[in-house]
């Protein structure tokens, strides 16, 4: 027994450290940021699993959108327009309550009334006619007073904001507090203290029934998952906009804190009349997101003013006035979207309060989790130290499924947010630690694989292969792959004029760039270097379902890399280079081939030969890259231009060849391809004159294009010597 303990001593020590860290985090004695972040992620997953598709009609968003701005002018609007909006909502549509997700911090001077009053007190103070006219016009021009009059005696909630940064001056008038210092005295210190606020004009705030803040809680990852339902400013406590709206909509029932006194006093919620609203000890509520943006009905503000919205959409609804217009949009990162309208955050909270369905994480859940981990730890150690790897793995998976299912059941049935990250990390952490010894045996086998394949395959692919060495073999096999050939044009002429040492450096420069693109950027296997030519392939030995796409992307990237290299070559006094690339896809033989003296991991077959022929044809057609038909068919997202039908040396069957123009949809390149396709159609239909006119039009745009000139030359020959009746438009190349 003692010998077994000594054998497992390192595992027991590391496991104990892991268990203590997790337990300390759950108990609150130590904050582990990774666990907190993982808990947030798992919470987001639970939210997304339970999203609802149908919008909630009980809360409607009156949107200050582009349509409204176009009709009523840029924001901010004159307050008399807002007064009309409030009148329309309550008098025409008879909404239940309305809240503004904006703050009115400054007077509305757009009517010119301040300037008229200045004249009345200055140059025109003795002008009786002017004074009389001003007295008559003031009620119409004092738009703030008109807006205040519209707010009075109506279930309207204004919005304000607050912040915790020191040194910022406050402005505006706060609404009446929701709770006073005496009610919150036992837990006041747990509510974060605001250092400043930005509120509405006193005239407007005093006219409104209530006010609430619209400041969300932003977590460490930038996401909004919580909103403080209470904000402490001085000794008073002010509600969130959503809470104030529900209170007004319910007829202003009393609000009181729910304080737990078990194990010390702590806030666990709020009681609004008969509604219980769950919060954490800091007065924050988790936002019960229904789904992505658009989970609530939106109506345009101008349509409300003009009574164009159906009455049943707004009647007896809770209304939020907010904006989605560009430049005004208040966007938030949330668990259900990275550009989520801030006004919908409040709408989700309102819906959750109406349903009394806010997610909650009561203190007893943390105690239950701590006890669960205490019981789980010895069970896991026993399984991992005494059972076989297979049994231990199955047991850990079963535990994860069981505990994860229980966690999801608590969420869906009771909206209990049971933290699962600590449980997940404990099971996975102990599993990884105690399986580490087995790694050394697996590592030995992987090193053998590296020794075997490392002679032929780039290190990046060997590393991936080592993750599952049983899947790979050096034996020859037939597979669907993509192969690429490159060749430097006129290299013989270039090399004749260079000293040997400079030629070697020159070749190393461009071969390095081509190899970097193939290996590091697109993870191809470089088969061999043949002078200035490079041969590479994709799809073996590592399976790559996107081998054709990777080969085409690499071909175009090589052209970009060479274009970037040429200025550096010229700076050294060397000539620029251009590279032709051929790519083909098809069945080919791949494996360790050669003799008893030397073996190499390579590919061969008809598809490989065709790729080499395609590379040779690039110079003839004046294009940089040519691909075969199978490659084109395997890469539907690439924009191609069909070049020709050709019959190459060594093949009886004609093939269609294509030039890739863009790796993503590009309307301009697609038009180039379509215009040349029309020229090809006319050419193959023997409509020589029409085909030449199409080519001349193309040459107007691209006068130096070798391809268009080539087909004009062919047409000239065919017009002089018409082809036989069975001519099929295929061009025959005799050379290699």
Can you describe what's shown?
There is one protein chain. This protein is an alpha/beta fold. The protein folds into four domains: 2-31 and 385-439, no CATH class; 59-355, no CATH class; 477-611, 2-Layer Sandwich (Alpha-Beta Plaits); 635-736, no CATH class. Helix content is 47%, strand content 20%. The chain contains 26 helices and 26 strands. The strands form seven sheets. Strands 1, 2, 3, 4, 5, 14 and 15 form a seven-stranded mixed beta sheet that branches. A hairpin with a 5-residue loop joins strand 6 and strand 7 (224-228). Helix 11 (241-249) packs across helix 14 (342-355). It is extended, with a radius of gyration of 37 Å. The N and C termini lie far apart (76 Å). The model has no long low-confidence stretch (mean pLDDT 87).
Keywords:
single chain; 736 residues; alpha/beta; Alpha-Beta Plaits; seven-stranded mixed β-sheet; six-stranded mixed β-sheet; 26 helices; 20% strand
